[in-house]
Amino acid sequence: MAGQITSSMGVAAPRIKAATSEPWWVRLALTGLAILFLASFLMVPLLAVFTEALRKGIQAYFESFREPAAFSAIKLTLLVAGISVPLNLIFGLAASWALAKFQFRGRSVLITLIDLPFAVSPVISGLVYVLLFGLQGWLGPWLSDRDIQIIFAVPGIVLATIFVTFPFVARELIPLMQEQGTEDEQAALTLGASGWQTFWRVTLPNVKWALLYGVILCNARAMGEFGAVSVVSGHIRGKTNTLPLHVEILYNEYNFVAAFAVASLLTLLALVTLVLKAIVEKRAHAASAA
Amino acid sequence: MTNRFLPTIHGRLRELVRGTVLVIVAATVFAYGADIQLLNVSYDPTRELYVDFNKAFASYWKEKTGQNVTIEQSHGGAGKQARAVIDGLEADVVTLALAYDISAIAEKAKLLPEDWQSRLPHNSAPYTSTIVFLVRKGNPKGIRDWSDLVKPGIEVITPNPKTSGGARWNYLAAWAYVLEQELGDLEKLHDPQFSEDVKKAEAKARDFVAALLKNVPVLDSGARGSTTTFVQRGIGDVFLSWENEAFLAVNELGPDKFEIILPSLSILAEPPVTVVDRNAKKHGTLEVAQAYLEYLYSPEGQRLAAKHFYRPVNPESADPADLARFPEVELVTIDNVFGGWKNAQETHFNDGGVFDEIYAPAG
Amino acid sequence: MSGRWKAHSVLPGFGLTLGYTVVYLSLIVLIPLAALFAKSATMGWAEFWQAVTAPRVVASYKLTFGASFVAAAVNIVFGFITAWVLVRYRFPGKRVIDGMVDLPFALPTAVSGIALTTIYSQNGWIGQYLEPLGIKTAFSPLGICIALTFIGLPFVVRTLQPALADLDKELEEAAASLGATRWKTFLRVLLPPLVPPILTGFALAFARAIGEYGSVVFISGNMPMRTEITSLLIITKLEQYDYAGATAIAAVMLVASFALLLLINLLQWWSVRRYQGGVA
């Protein structure tokens, strides 16, 4: 039967080739349309940021970063990402192990709950911590008596960032681990490896690219979050402003060049993220093909 | 290949965890400075004033007591800022756009006594301002007074009165203008004999403000957002603005692009300042916080206020050149026309108030 | 799995990892969200109902959901074309274009917001050409749609790409050899298996859009009843010290988001089943 198909395909080959792909003008039109759409939609905003940032020349551009407030915003942003990304990384590993390697009731509800921060308005993400830790909130008075500052200080900003970036690592790992199944692990266990050994030597290498991918996405969001952080930051200049908030403040101070300069820094960060992501994807592809 | 990769990930993870712990420890240590720190939570247009004033006060305090004081600033829409203080942003002093917002802090969070406004002279407002019109150079639409704002085809820029203190002053100034036009004399408001006339005038005022708001294409949440819309985006023919903000826009963004128009009547805006007692006591900064606010009333403080386009309450200590920039204008007060902030807020801006009714769908 | 809560497995660590997952999830997400519901429950039912159905609030739902829907629909069309071109055709600069698709995701929303406003306002790069035509983009519902389309694009493209790559080439060839036209092959053979990923992509972009805040506030104009999105309304309520009102609206949004996500997960489950069962 296989031979039959091959022979019939052989006869009709030229026609099939034409019929499994579009005429050249359709291809050209579609490609042109896609490129035009992406260029006007994605490239133009990118160009706008850099053009505005360099409007007063390269010197004014670098001047914008010399300000102590900009410097402290950079530091705070790195600190916040430095705390929230590893925590979500550990969570992502634990959650994906439990959710991808085991079948149990309530699994899909749990997955949906993990996804929830993705669709929740960042305003709500900030608001919930105000309700918990604010002076009028559940724990506020208790914390205030003990002189512990959560919101309007670094811990609150970290919490809001963790919330917003919560699903990213777990979301990258769960489908992959599920697809890979449990056979490798079972084999390792049968050969006498301990649970930890199995995890470190078998599972982790299998998912390392997806893990890295998740971390990159998580980090990009952690450094760029605006809405949630804005609600819990308190906007104290040089103290509780992250980079995106600093952009807003500069913008509100009519310091448009500096605002776009700091924005361009964040944009560069986004571009680096994209490049890293492309590299990781390529490696992952090569690894899975090998 | 897999085995080669493992130790790196393992080691990196460990490094990462160690790094995180270090960073947290460092942040905690960093938070405890040696100097006195004061947090001033303020509204949008005072940024430039307080940058200057904080420097002046720090050197004054250093000279007087030998202590180093650093003042931290937080700016934003007045409502947002007051809410942050209520929710636990530990401001030592607040310098907001209107008394209502500070009263909200007193009422909802009990961080300061409810009679806070009588603690400093002039209703606790060391400087005042008013509402003016900012128009494009040459005033192409010929806008002279409030009545020009409701003409068809005029685009008016104002922030949202629900969230912006300045916008509430705008709204109330427009309202007061109509009352004055209709009644001739605002004293009639307090005379029961004219209650019928007052009612009619208020209906007119309501229609007028509704017509004015119809001409507003963008309602930003704060004064600074509106300035950007008008100045940077080129939207609108006239921008209802704080006087100081209008001067700043003209000076910073182009004397050749904008001019300031003074309406026939405007409102006396008193942005008040006060110490947040509970926070200041907790931080042990009560004394320096009080001195900070009193310094606003000092000749130096008054000079700086005038320099940054606020009308000083003691003009004699300001630079006459600065004072010359403030033209004479008939100013009504909120107490006289609206019976104080609490009343104005409840009637006009609370949910279900006049502002909401104006924006409610027809029918 | 019948009768028992958890299927048997020889792998260790279930208790530890599930325990950690649930505890961390509770601390970061569930307890804070519970605080939200608790706060909104301090209002009576009638009061709650009034708060979440006030005309201005309803107008904001319509705008938020409507603009998100339009944006997701636009993304389906252009996202499909983009994914199709990226998977099936070769052209110079393809790698760069492919990488760029994720830009809206990686770019901080505040930066997208000011960049888009700069471009589309009436004196902006693109806005100045649209304004004379009577098309107002920034500070109108159209501007909101543009911002939401911007942020939703990667979700559609990235959902469709693997599905398109996985399409069975033989089916296509068979259809062609049986004499179907290209367009017919596309409609009858290629499109049906793509329906689940299209729906998933749509729902993802939609879910992301209804929660969006940072990029929209700059471009929306914030007019009550007209261009005020629900997230902004929550902030406005907060700034009027109306915590209960703000949390009530937030609770409604939260339930909507949860329902949407559940739908997405069901869709994915359906699509996996369909895929494994072969295309009928």
Task: Please name the defining characteristics of this protein.
heterotrimer, A: 290 residues, mainly alpha, globular, C: 280 residues, MetI-like fold, 76% helix
Question: Helices, strands, pairings?
Answer:
The complex is a heterotrimer of chains A (290), B (363) and C (280).
Chain A: H1 2-19, H2 24-53, H3 57-66, H4 68-101, H5 107-119, H6 122-133, H7 140-145, H8 154-165, H9 167-180, H10 183-190, H11 195-224, H12 227-233, H13 243-252, H14 256-289
Helix pairs in contact in A: 2-14, 3-14, 4-8, 4-9, 4-11, 5-9, 6-8, 6-12, 8-11, 8-12, 9-11, 10-11, 11-14, 13-14
Chain B: H1 2-31, E1 36-43, H2 47-65, E2 69-76, H3 78-86, E3 93-95, H4 99-109, E4 127-128, E5 131-136, E6 156-157, H5 165-183, H6 195-214, H7 223-231, E7 238-242, H8 243-253, E8 258-261, E9 265-267, E10 273-275, H9 277-283, H10 286-297, H11 299-307, E11 311-312, H12 320-323, E12 330-332, H13 334-338, H14 340-349, H15 354-359
Helix pairs in contact in B: 2-11, 3-4, 5-6
Chain C: H1 14-40, H2 45-53, H3 55-88, H4 94-100, H5 103-106, H6 109-120, H7 127-130, H8 141-165, H9 169-177, H10 182-211, H11 214-220, H12 230-239, H13 243-276
Description:
- The complex is a heterotrimer of chains A (290), B (363) and C (280).
- By secondary structure, chain A is mainly α.
- Chain A has helices at 2-19, 24-53, 57-66, 68-101, 107-119, 122-133, 140-145, 154-165, 167-180, 183-190, 195-224, 227-233, 243-252, 256-289.
- Chain B has helices spanning 2-31, 47-65, 78-86, 99-109, 165-183, 195-214, 223-231, 243-253, 277-283, 286-297, 299-307, 320-323, 334-338, 340-349, 354-359, and strands at residues 36-43, 69-76, 93-95, 127-128, 131-136, 156-157, 238-242, 258-261, 265-267, 273-275, 311-312, 330-332.
- In chain B, the strands form four sheets. A four-stranded mixed β-sheet of chain B has the order 2-1-3-10. A four-stranded mixed β-sheet of chain B has the order 6-7-5-8.
- By secondary structure, chain C is mainly alpha-helical.
- Chain C has two domains: 11-40; 44-279, MetI-like (MetI-like fold, Orthogonal Bundle), CATH 1.10.3720.10.
- Helix content of chain C is 76%, strand content 0%.
- Chain C contains 13 helices and no strands.
- Chain C has helices at residues 14-40, 45-53, 55-88, 94-100, 103-106, 109-120, 127-130, 141-165, 169-177, 182-211, 214-220, 230-239, 243-276.
- The model of chain C has no long low-confidence stretch (mean pLDDT 86).
- Chains in contact: A-B, A-C, B-C.
- Chain B binds chain C through residues 77, 79-80, 82-83, 86, 104, 108, 160, 162-163, 216-221, 229, 233-235, 349-351, 356, 359-361, and chain C through 54-56, 59, 117, 121-124, 138-139, 217, 221-225, 232, 235-236, 238-242, 245.
